[in-house]
Amino acid sequence: MTTSDITTQGSKDINSFETEMANTIRRYRLESQGNSGFIASLGLLIKKMYEDGVLSDIGREAYDNSGNKKSVSYESLAVNFSEKILKENRKA
Fold it and tell me: Cα-flanking dihedrals φ and ψ of residue 7, to 5°?
């Protein structure tokens, strides 16, 4: 992590809050299936951040790759987002 809280991978950046959110989703997912409501709430937050243009390039790419937005639940959106961000963060 750099002093500006951005991890750089090539010419793309991952914001620290995206990494933290991905780690939180992963942790809550591993702890219990009872956390699915909380994870779905994070998925809704990710969608709102995408619509507001807050996500980094990799964050937008992770959101775009989460499948058909009309049929994907917020929980699966959050899980897919988390997996993509953590994968890209390991590459950095």
Answer: -95, 130
